[in-house]
């Protein structure tokens, strides 16, 4: 036994984590992203890893050099993230949850964030327009190009299995 080794403080476990350990969850306010946020929190807790909720924003393509007085897409994104966290955790979000609002298109921004993450967790479908698709464009792009493992969560993933209704499997 090495008696010269320094004693570890109770907070020493937090010292061993780096930014590369974090579980990053992409949040767009959809039911699937809220389920992903809950699932990501469970994984972060199980792995004793940091948890980061990320939402992205861009200016609408129709905006030119003119801006609408008093409107900020970044502020809207912050409000969306706060509302999603409230929906996911009510009044008890994880104490160490990091909230990030980043400028840029969702897929490329999340792929860039994945370079410094242990896992990227996403909902299978966001607010996109093609309802029949199993995966949205952001989750598809991230699954194909992320630099860390990607977990894609369905909206009902945080519902106990016993209370889920069976969905028919389409035949081809």
UniProtKB/TrEMBL annotation:
Region of interest: Disordered: 1-20
Segments of skewed composition (Low complexity): 1-10
Domain annotation UspA: ranges: 21-154
Segments of skewed composition (Basic and acidic residues): 11-20
Xref: InterPro entries: Rossmann-like_a/b/a_fold, Universal_stress_UspA, UspA
Coiled coil: none
Membership in a protein family: Belongs to the universal stress protein A family.
PANTHER family: ADENINE NUCLEOTIDE ALPHA HYDROLASES-LIKE SUPERFAMILY PROTEIN (PTHR46553:SF3)
Name by which UniProt lists this protein: Universal stress protein
